[in-house]
Each structure stands twice: as structure tokens, then as C-alpha cells.
Amino acid sequence: MNKTLIILKREYLTRVAKKSFIVTTLLVPIFMIGLMVVPAWLASRDDKQERTIAVYDESTLFMGQLDQEGYTKYQFIDQNTYGTLKESLASNSEFYALLYIPANIYTNSQAQLSSPKQVPFELAEEIERKLSQIIETDKRQKVIESAGVPDLESQLAATRTKVSVNTLKVTETGEERKSSSMVAFITSYGMGFIIYFFVFMYGSLVMRSVMEEKKNRIVEVIISSVKPFQLMAGKILGTALVGLTQVAIWIILIVAGLTITKTMLSPESAQEMGKSIMESQAQMGPMQPNMSEAQNQIAEVIEMIGNLNIPLIIFGFIFYFLGGYLLYSSLMGAVGAAVDNDEDSQQLVFPVTFPLILSIILLFSISRNPEGSVAFWASIIPFTSPICMLARIPYGVPAWELLLSMSLLIVTLIGVIWVAAKIYRTGILMYGKKVNLKELYKWLTYKG
Amino acid sequence: MEYFVANNIHKEYGTTKALDDVSISVREGSIFGLLGPNGAGKTTLIRIINQITAPDKGEVFLGGHRMKESDVSKIGYLPEERGLYKKMKIGEQALYLAQLKGLSRRDALKSLKYWFEKFEIVSWWDKKVEELSKGMQQKVQFIATVVHNPSLLIFDEPFSGFDPINANLIKQEILELKDKGATIIFSTHNMGTVEDLCDHIALINKSRKILDGPVYEVKEQYKSNIFEVSYRGDYNKIQSMLDSSFVILEHKENSRENTIRVQQNESGESNELLRILTGTSDIVSFREVIPSMNDVFIKAVEMYNGTKK
User: Fold this and answer.
1) What ipTM is given for this predicted complex?
2) Domain covering A51-149: architecture
3) Is B97 close to A446, i.e. CB distance below 8 A?
4) What is the pLDDT of residues B62-84, one digit of tens each?
5) The domain made up of B2-220 is a member of CATH 3.40.50.300
6) What is the pTM of this model?
7) How many angstroms separate the CA of residue A221 from the nearest CA in chain B?
């Protein structure tokens, strides 16, 4: 058997059999689901606390107009009560908060809500909305009266317009395709993050594995049997396979999870849902257009996804994924070989991972302007291109830019692997020497 | 016949010279001692033999052919700084290292079975390295060095970390491997074991080879005409008989016999001393003092460093 393959096999098997691998592989999806579900569940629970708010209305505009809504009650008080309550609000258990509406609210649009507690954002918003609505209605009433046009209200209502802009992507043949900035944005962001996490996580794994072998001093025995390059290649590729296994397990878990929820939902809930929809449709006719509108929207999103250049995206993903991983993991392997302990590694890891972190920072501005000069340079320069070019692909990239970026990445990759292999070979047998960039540069000049 | 030959090896790291025109040749089936102070360049030479690094200049031959990449499977190397994967099971680890040397899984298992039984450590197969003592780990490392039945073995301080009993066991194993025809390069600072084991030595100091030859010849070369004589008689009488070509280095007296150490200047013959002494006293024993390897080592290195200054 090829020696690189033997090393690859060991790297793979020892990692996959580790408890930590099994735990993270199973826990990460649960954690992610938890991260999405828990806040949604918390948000769906209504705020059921009963609150009474004392209102001192100096403007007298709102008397009797603030009705109870949900669990919030309003009680109007006079000036004297306001004076005493203001002093004793903290010790008062009857009122949750005190709303002061000044006399000039009509022109100034400012009110004040004081409470000994932190007022929830929703409550403040609800009050704002109520007050604005009342003032607005009142103002409009006055305008209508002074204009003397009888059905002005309904005429004004008829002027309300909403225009939606459909983004179309024109291909070279002049064909127009529906595109969605939103769909492209999500795709590019998602892929960028996956690459970032994978490269970071598994690049560090390669580094730690190299450091372990150096620390253990087993490395000299191994490289008396295989070339250092074979050892490094086996390690990097084996670790990549571990990562791919993890991703594959996640995909299987997601698909299985979706299928299970679907089958669990389908017999009863789906039928019931269907029934209630039919009932509601029968009851109220006006619902119908809304329903078909929602269906249209879903169909549109599907069409937009379909209009993304999926084969190119998949190819780009695999290419930049591999390119980025090989680029950074070989550098991190070299760092692992160059240092003796964890503290020193931190110092050297930062310059290596800096472009990676920079790519993620640039990702947002690229998504906003995928044709801009930042996006262009970031997607051409090889150290940021794995994330940045990939992020641009869903928006469409000129072929020459893509080719330039890919060929630069390949050329750089060859150069980086050469440099990393040199550093690795010298570093793994070098002990007790504090290594800096200058020293590393010297190693490149060593022969054999 | 020479099994391993290195000719005019040069190696530099940046501006530091690690090896400067070093040549050694190792006879097939012999034990060759590679000696030298720390930092002399021994490890670099060993790494060149193992093809871990390549020489800047010079050639390396194995079994009459220029050394090629596949020759690593004919070499077994036990480095001075050695270790194993802490979390990996002993058996799997030995199997892995054997496979890296080019053995098939089946051959590796067969050979490992032989060695594990020989060292009576079969029950360790499923243990992790971190559960073993240092001496136990060393045994596993020794097995990993010899498992692929190499024809050239390189041991760098093989006895460090062993208790006297296990050190002796390893020594016997090394001699047995030699009897079976293996060629052995042996690097150590323990001159006692060099005298016990080695047929031939080379001494490297400050990146140059300063001494080379069979152990007895090297010692012969460093002897300095010192004789040790035990006699029954009067010391003063002897002293008066010896002329200026002799220097008495030491004299000891006890109730039964006296002993003196005498150094003769270069030109004289050993018989001359004997002739003088036989006339004066009753000689019990007479022998020429041959330096130990320890003396040779120190003398050679000091002389070389002295002339360099």
C-alpha cells in the first residue's frame, strides 16, 4: 500500500473513532436547531403580564381613547395624583408605569414613559403606535373638514400604491431570467461561512496533529520511513476526509430529520390543516386571492433558486473549498511544525489566518456590491479568493475573472505547498529554538 | 565486505557547518560505533543515512549500490529522542510503523507476534502508550525498529531509559541481530558499551571525522608507552637504575608486592625496561597499559580542539 495512504488511513480512523468527533458531529446539528428553535419558541410565547399604566394627559387629547389592549390597561389620573405618583412610583404596586403626555404633544410629538422597571420594547412601541394613530386621525379629520371635499377620505385611500420591483437577470443571449438578490445573498453568505468554519476548524486540527507528533518525538521514526511530504500530505488529506465525513453525516441527519418531521406531520396534521384551509376559504371569499399570492411567491422563490447557475455554484464550491482548505491547512501544518509549544503557535497562527478573517469581514460588503472594486480584488487575490469569489458566484461573475482567480489560486497553492513543505521538513526536527518569520525564511534556503 | 559507505559528506545549515568532508565505511555484519561530543554532527550523519536529510555534497552507498529512496525499508532506526502516539494502542501502533516500513499487514502481524512473544509483552497489545512505563515504551520502540528485519540498524543511545536487566536484554538482542548478519551503526556516549560491542569506531568532532579504525587499533594508536610492573623488591633500587628515558608516573606499595607505572620515551623498546628490571627485582607481572575508549575519546577530542586553537 502507498505510504501516504497508510498515513491517511490512520489519521482518518483515529480521528473518526474519537469520542470528541462523535459528540461534535451529533451535537452540532442539535445545537444549531436549538439556536433556531428556542428563540422562535420564546418569541411565540405571549407576554402575559398584566400591567396598568397611569396616564396623565396634559393635552386632554386622549381622554377615553386609550382602551385596554391585551394585558395592558390604562388609567387616567389628574395633575395632583400625577405629582404624588411621580414621587412614589418605585414603591407603588398598583401602577406598572407612568405615561406623561405633555400639552404640546400635537406639535412636539414627544411623550414620556417612566417606570421603576425596564419597560419592554413591545410595550413602548404599542404606546407609540397608539398615540401616533390618534394624533394622525385627528389631524386628518381637520384637513378633511377644512378642505370641504365630502369623500376625501376614500379618495385618499384610493391613492395608496405599492410597487414591487422584480429583479431580472439578462443573460448574454438576451434571455431574461428572474433573479432574487435575497436568494443570491443567502447562498453566497452561507457558502462563505461554511468554507470559513471548515478551513478554520480542520486547519487547526492539522496544526495540532503536527504539533503532537513533534512533541511526542515520534516524528523522527516516521520520517525515517516516509518522506516528510508524504506525512504532511497524508495528514492533510486524511483530515479533509474527516471533515467531509462530518458534513456528510450532517446532511444525512438533516434529510432524515426533515423526512421524519414530514411523515409525522402528514397523516393527521396535514389533513387537518387542509380541512381548516378549505373551511376558511369557503367562509370568506376574500382569503382566496391571498392564498394564491402566497403560492405564487413560493413558486417564484423556487424559480429564482432554479435560475441560479447551480452547476457552476457546486463546481465553484468544491473548487474553492478544496483550494482554501489545502492553502490554509498546509500553512497551519507548517506553523505546527515550526513551534515547540502552544504559546508560540498563537503568535504565528495569526498572520496565517488573518486573510481568512479578513475574507469574512469583506463578505458583507461583497454581498452588497458584488461588482465593486473591493469585491473584485478580494476575489482575485488567492488568500481571500476562496471565500470572496465563491460569494460572488451566485450573483454572476465574468468568465475571465473566474478563470483568473482560479488559476492564481492554483499557482499560489503550488507555491504555498512548496514553502510549507520546506518549513515543515526543517521544523519538525528542530527543538528548543524560538522561531520567528525571519528564521522561517532562512529555512527556505536549506537544501534537502 | 563493506555494507554501508558514505564518501566525503558535506552538510551545511545556513552558514553553520554540520558535516565537513566526513567518510565512513561499515563492514557487513559488524558493529560500528559512531562517537563524538554533543553537537559534533553525529545526528546529522545518522539523518543522512536515513534519508531524512540529503547531503549537500558526497555519496552514500548501501550494499554496493548508490542509496535509493526504497532503501529506507532496509534500515531500522532507533533515534535518541524517541516517542510514540500516547493515545494509540501498542499493537496498532507497532503495526502502523511496520506498515510504513513497507511490510504488508500480514507480514507485519507475523513479525510482531514473534517479537512480542520474545519480549513477553503479548498482553500489552491493547494497552495505550500512556499506561506504560518509560522502559516498557522503549521495548516497544525497539521492536518497531527491528520488526521489518532490516539489514542496516542504527541505534542512537539504545540503552537510555532501561534498567540494567533490560539494558542487558537489549544488548543480547543487538548481538543476536549481528550474528544473524545485520550491520549495525551504534551511537552512544557510554564508552564502556563501545568497548563491549563495537568492532570499529569513528570519532566525529566539530563536524569533522578525527579518528577512525578498529577498536583495538585505535587504542593501540593512543597508547603512550606506559607499562605497569608488579614486583617484589626495593623501590629505591629500581628508581636508581632507571635513566632519563623513563619517567615513573606512579608507585604503590603493599605487604606482598609493589606496583609502578613507568612511561618510556618514544624511542625506547619495551624489552629494555624489562631487561633493567629483571636484574633488580623479582617481577610478578609486566604489561603495557592500553588506554580505555574513554581515555581515547577525551585525548583525541582535546588534542584536536587544542591544535585548532
Assistant:
1) 0.83
2) 3-Layer(aba) Sandwich (3.40)
3) no
4) 998 999 988 999 999 999 888 89
5) yes
6) 0.74
7) 7
